[in-house]
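During the second half of the funding period, the structural biology subgroup turned its attention to how the target accommodates small molecules. The most pressing case was N-acetylmannosamine-6-phosphate, which had performed well in the primary screen but for which no bound structure existed. We therefore specified the complex as follows and requested a full 3D prediction, including the ligand pose.
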Amino acid sequence: MTASPYPRDPQTLLDALAGRLIVSCQAPPGDPMRDTDALVLLARCAHAGGAAAIRANEPEAVAAIRAEVDLPVVGLWKDGDTGVDTGVDTGVYITPTVRHALAVAGAGADVVAADATDRPRPDGSAFAELVAAVHAAGALVMADVATHAEGLAAAAQGADLISTTLSGYAPGSPRQAGPDLGLVASLAAAVSVPVVAEGRLHTPEQAAEALARGAHSVVVGTAITAPTALTRRFAEAVEGRTPRP
Ligand SMILES: CC(=O)N[C@H](C=O)[C@@H](O)[C@H](O)[C@H](O)COP(=O)(O)O
């Protein structure tokens, strides 16, 4: 593992993300971009374009990006069926257990992103246990939530940032075509930790609007780093089919 070039002082890291863009460099299983070297290239492009941090999936990609790109890394480990395409609730899959979280921290992530919905975790752990383990490993925790109540609970359990990542992908949250800016605004007004806008931010204008609604930072993935999904949207539109959100 390469040592992080960033001070692990939490406030310094949070300040570096204030009002800034985090680019999610991920690819789903079976996608041609699901290749560590390709993901590193995406992260380098994000850095060159002005991103303040990279969000990356799986310890191998986290470690490679940490080694090659001079930016903080928000790491996660997706394990299990995401249900993103089917809309079926498949349970917790973003950094589902303490073991996954410690592996991501051990790979060099400055921040570990993990599911903080109110669904049961496969190892039976409480979210607060995951937070304590990650803090002991020297990293911060980004709580990926779907609802306002989950955001409040995650803040109370020690999360350092709350992200709207799972709105539209977990029970209790509406699947919208665009970002859940209502959740961003309601959480920003209710918690003292930074709130991150994430999920279906399709345009620069939506990203700027999220900051205006109180977000500390914005995470953009598909609109920047997913050529297969972007091509599919255009192909579906020109073929007269309804593009997926
Ligand atoms: C729901 C889920 O599993 N979200 C994942 C979280 O890491 C990623 O697949 C998303 O790409 C990321 O949240 C950014 O969102 P968007 O690609 O919409 O800009």
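Two results from this model are relevant to the next phase. Residues 36-49 form the longest helix (14 residues). The beta strands are 20-25, 53-57, 73-76, 111-115, 140-144, 161-163, 195-198, 217-220.
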